[in-house]
Amino acid sequence: MGDFPTELLRQQLGEGLVALGLDTAVGEAARDGLLDYLAQLQRWNRSHNLTAIRDPHAMVAQHLLDSLALLPHLPDGLLLDVGSGAGLPGVPLAIVRSGQDFVLIEPNAKKAAFLRHVHRHLGLVRVVVHAGRVENYRPPEPAAAVLSRATASLARLDAMTQHLQASGTRVLAAKGPGWREEMREWPRAASLAPESIPLAVPGLPPRFLVRWPGG
Questions:
Q1: From CA 59, how far away is CA 53, in angstroms rounded?
Q2: pTM of the predicted model as reported, rounded to 2 decimal places
Q3: Separation CA 113–CA 129 (nearest Å)
Q4: N or C: which terminus of the chain has fewer CB atoms within 10 Å of its end residue's CB?
């Protein structure tokens, strides 16, 4: 793959999965898919500027492992990746959870085109790409969870997804340490009582999963 160091990245990915406790949860076929996804992202990034991260080793930590850290917290059922961007966290999770339904919601035309390419290239048959604003999206059934990674502040995320937060739906937001400041600016925080779960992602500063029940 030219300048894409597949074997070194596979080793880095494997070590990261061990550190996350996901070594047995992510098989070899899924690892092949994850590295193929990164290769496609690096190739498209040259002309479409999908992500500011260019180094493939940094992509393993900041894209793959950071997304896969959510894996143990996913419920069964339909999962909505809001503001999916280049497919994060939805694509890595969908590669591993190939039998689960995902909708990747992304309003940016270039990024949505990349998501459609990845959908075809990797054969992600349980993935749907919605090229549009989340406020205009209506799911075919109540979602089990709404996922977000670096999409918006907690208050903004809550506001833009309230129509998706049915009874039984969880909102799962991957955040950095700044989530505490965001809580102070979130009017509904007190009534929703969100919980935060530390995520120890190898190679990254402290990460957190902030989640709350919909309804």
A1: 6
A2: 0.96
A3: 9
A4: C
For residues 21 and 127, what is the distance between their CA atoms, to the nearest angstrom?
25
The binding site comprises: 83, 88, 134-135, 149
- Tens of pLDDT along 77-89? 999 999 999 999 9
Q: Which domains does the chain have, with CATH numbers?
A: 6-213 (3.40.50.150)
CA neighbor of 55 nearest in space, from 211, 198, 203, 166: 203
Annotated binding site for S-adenosyl-L-methionine: 83, 88, 134-135, 149
**DSSP per-residue codes, 52-84:** S---HHHHIIIIIIHHHTTGGGPPSS-EEEET-
Q: Tell me: the pLDDT tens digits for 51-99?
A: 999 899 999 999 999 999 999 999 999 999 999 999 999 999 999 999 9
